[in-house]
Amino acid sequence: MLCTLTTIKAQNKTYIPGDKEFANKSIHDLIEICNKYNREYDDLHLKAVARRLIIASKDQKNETGEGYANFFLGIADLFSGNREKGLRYLWKAKHCADVVKNDTLASHIFNAIGIYENKAGSNYLARWYYREGLSRARRAHCYEQFGIILANLSELSIQLRDTSGIRFAEECYQMGVKRNIKFMMYNGATHKAVSEFFQKKYKSAEEWIDKALAINIKENTTTPITLAYKAELLTKRKQFKEAIKYADKALASAKRVSVSRIPLAFRSIAETYFYQGEYTKALTALDSAYAYAKNNAIYITKKDINLEYAKVYAGMKNYQKAYEYEKLAHEEFMNTEYQKRTHILEECRIMLIMLQKDQQKMAQRAIKEQHKHIVIAEIAVAVMFVFLCIISFITFKLYKKNKKLEKAA
C-alpha cells in the first residue's frame, strides 16, 4: 500500500550512488523499496532509488514503473518545499498513469496534491483534488485508498464547516462496515463525531467518538483527533481529570504520527484548563499550540488559536487583550482568504496548461461525434425526401388513373 507523505521529517541518512543493495533489482522490487523509504520519510534514499527506477523503467519501456518513480520524486520534492518541481513530477506521473490506465496510481497522485494544498491553505483546491482522487479510486475498485481519501475529504469539509462533511464521514463509516475495513470505520466515526460536535450535538458526538475508540486499530493520523475531541467532550461534562488524560494522550499520539495535529491537542489541553479557571496554564498551552500552528497545522489555524486567546483573556476579565486577539483573528482570516484566492488562481493556471492536451483530445472527440450526428441527420433528411418523392409519385399516378376512369364512365 502506498503511504502518502503527510509530514516532513529530518533527512538524516546518506545514500552512496551505485550502492550494490539496489543493483539488478526488478521494477516491482524498486517500487517496494521506494514505498518503504516513503513510509520512513527518508527522502534522500527515496529520491535515489526513484531515479534508479526511472532509468530501469525507461530501459524496459515500462510506463507503470516510470509513473511510480515520478510519483515518489514528486511527493519527496513537494513536501520538502519544492512545490513547482514536485508538481512537475506528479503531472508526469499522472500522464504515465493515464497511458497505462492505472487509476490506483492516479488516485494516489491526486490525494498527495490534495494533502499538500490543504497544508498550504488552499482548502477548496484541495477538495477538487480529493474528489478527483476519490473518483479514480472508485473506478479502480481500490477501497482502501477510497477510504483514505474519503476520510481526508471528510476532514477538509469539517475544516470548512461544510455540512457535506457529515455525508462523507457517514459514507466512509458505512463502506468500512460493508467491506470490513477497520480504519474506514474508525475515520468515518471520528469525523462524524467532529461534525456533530460543531453542530453542538454533544450527546451524538460522544456516541460516535466512543464507537471509534471501541474499534481495535493501529494508531494513525486520525488518532490524535479522536482523543482530542474525546477530551473536549469530557470537558463539556466537567470531567476534567479524565479530559486532561485524553488531551495528554492526544498530544503524545500527535507527536508520534503527525506534527500537524499537535496544535489541536494543545488546544484541547487549553480548553480543559480554561473551564477549570486555570487561565495561566491555558495560556501556556495556547502558546505551544500557536508555535506549532505557524507551519504545521491542518485541523486548527492561527485564527482559531487567536480566538481561544481572546476567550481566555475575557475569562481573566482582561477585555483589552481579548479585543486585541479578536482583532488579530479577523486580520489573520482576511489575509488567509486573500492568499487562498491568489493561490487558487495560480494553481488553476497551471492546471489549465497541464490539462490542455487532454482537453484538445476531448474537443476532437466531441467534433467527431458532432460530425457523425450531422452525417446521420443528413442521411435521415435524404431518406425522408426520397420517401416523400415516392409517395408523391404514387399519389399522382393514382390521381391520373381515377381521372381516366371518370372519363370512361
UniProtKB/TrEMBL annotation:
Name recorded for this polypeptide: Tetratricopeptide repeat protein
InterPro entries the UniProt entry points to: TPR-like_helical_dom_sf, TPR_rpt
Naturally occurring in which organism (per UniProt): Segatella bryantii (Prevotella bryantii)
Alphabetical keyword list: Membrane, Transmembrane, Transmembrane helix
Entry keyword Repressor: no
Keyword field contains Transmembrane helix: yes
Transmembrane segments: 374-399
